[in-house]
């Protein structure tokens, strides 16, 4: 017989959730003030007083930060009462190139997402949305830091496996919801014969992308337009269209027109490649760790107007737009990839 859950059990369950929240705060502060970076640099560890002296911080506060971080398993203590970062956490918290980097996420949770959360009570009452592009340029930069390691994986492995020769020969690529353009820059660096167009509804992202494109000397083959996905008017110009962490951001009523625009923009035989989260078909699967990222993204981006689609919703939208040969994959069991093809023989009246 299953053991009855006590009030004490539930108290501990909620209390542990508070510890989780405070762990994120401790991590965020440690990153912001450079405390993890200083501990990482001093290989044998630092006492709280040494850490405070190194960073010109107030010793008693730093001591409590060290002790709290130790209590939360973020720091370890050496035999001489010095602190060092817990094993492998330097990678997860400091290595911005690593696919398992979460430092940026922790900082955003304590800042942008905490600010967004203040808006939730009103939003729940009246359904208001605070869209991505109203958050400001630092937010756009922050998001592009979050997607950067995943983009590296896709550009380094997944796209070359799928399109190796074509990318080398040179193709025309459209990035819908390109943000600050970093996916295009990574591809442009690896594939000098390709040309790129990035579009986004966020003027801040596009401004950053244009400046970076010119700084990198890529303006002749990487251009950026401030236009919404549902307004794209390209006709059979592209071999590949990308949507990287964008599908769940498109307003539900606009999804068919964005996909129709991608379809029109592609040449016959061209392909659309999507990276996104997927919502489970059955709500009981919401506790499955495979959907952990989807739940996290959905709840924290609710107020941006975002809705993570189920597999059947994604497939129906793509098929209704005319795409065929839908091939699904995943990255790390967390992110969904979908490759969809525009048929070579386009049915009459659909192009
Ligand atoms: C999570 S960000 C991803 C940006 C970029 N693809 C990356 O990997 O960093 C989602 C992007 O989708 C853009 N977006 C959302 N709705 C859009 C729409 N209707 N048309 C074009 N872009 C849109 C946002 O402005 C934002 O830049």
Question: How would you portray this structure in words?
Answer:
With 351 residues, the protein is an alpha/beta fold. It folds into two domains: 7-96, Arc Repressor Mutant, subunit A (Orthogonal Bundle), CATH 1.10.10.10; 124-341, Rossmann fold, CATH 3.40.50.150. The protein has 14 helices and nine strands. The strands form two sheets. A seven-stranded mixed beta sheet has the order 5-4-3-6-7-9-8, with helices on both faces. Helix 1 crosses helix 6 (103-110) and helix 3 (48-55) crosses helix 4.
What is the topological layout?
Elements: H1 7-32, H2 35-41, H3 48-55, H4 59-71, E1 75-77, E2 83-85, H5 89-94, H6 103-110, H7 112-118, H8 120-126, H9 137-169, E3 172-176, H10 182-190, E4 195-200, H11 203-215, E5 222-226, E6 238-244, H12 255-265, E7 266-276, H13 292-300, H14 311-320, E8 324-331, E9 335-341
Parallel strand pairs: 3-4, 3-6, 4-5, 6-7
Antiparallel strand pairs: 1-2, 7-9, 8-9
S-adenosylmethionine binds at residues 132-133, 143-144, 147, 151, 177-179, 183, 200-202, 205, 228-230, 244-246, 249-250, 254.
């Amino acid at each position: 017989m299953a053991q009855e859950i006590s009030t004490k059990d539930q108290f501990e369950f909620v209390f542990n959730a508070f510890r989780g929240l405070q762990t994120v705060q401790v991590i965020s502060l440690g990153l912001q003030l450079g405390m993890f970076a200083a501990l990482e640099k001093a290989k044998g560890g630092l006492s709280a007083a040494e850490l405070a002296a190194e960073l010109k911080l107030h010793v008693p506060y730093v001591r409590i930060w060290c002790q709290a971080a130790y209590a939360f398993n973020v720091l370890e203590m050496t035999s001489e009462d010095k602190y060092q970062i817990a094993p492998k956490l330097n990678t997860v918290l400091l290595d911005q190139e690593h696919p398992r980097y979460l430092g940026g996420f922790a900082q955003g949770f304590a800042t942008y997402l905490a600010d967004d959360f203040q808006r939730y009570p009103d939003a729940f009452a009246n359904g208001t949305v605070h869209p991505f592009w109203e958050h400001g340029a630092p937010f756009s930069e922050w998001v592009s830091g979050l997607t950067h390691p995943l983009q590296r994986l896709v550009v380094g492995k997944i796209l070359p496996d799928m399109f190796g020769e074509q990318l080398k020969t040179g193709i025309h690529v459209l990035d819908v919801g390109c943000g600050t353009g970093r996916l295009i820059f990574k591809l442009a660096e690896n594939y000098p014969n390709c040309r790129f167009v990035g579009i986004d509804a966020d003027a801040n992202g596009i401004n950053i992308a244009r400046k970076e494109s010119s700084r990198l000397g890529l303006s002749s083959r990487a251009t950026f337009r401030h236009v919404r996905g549902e307004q794209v008017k390209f006709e059979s110009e592209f071999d590949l269209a990308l949507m990287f962490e964008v599908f769940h951001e498109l307003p539900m009523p606009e999804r068919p027109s964005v996909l129709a625009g991608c379809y029109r923009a592609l040449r016959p035989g061209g392909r659309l490649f999507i990276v996104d989260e997927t919502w489970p078909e059955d709500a009981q699967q919401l506790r499955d760790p495979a959907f952990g990222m989807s739940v996290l993204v959905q709840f924290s981006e609710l107020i941006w107007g975002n809705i993570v689609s189920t597999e059947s919703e994604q497939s129906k939208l793509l098929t209704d737009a005319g795409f065929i040969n839908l091939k699904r994959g995943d990255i790390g069991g967390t992110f969904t990839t979908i490759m969809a093809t525009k048929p070579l023989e386009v049915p009459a009246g659909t192009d």
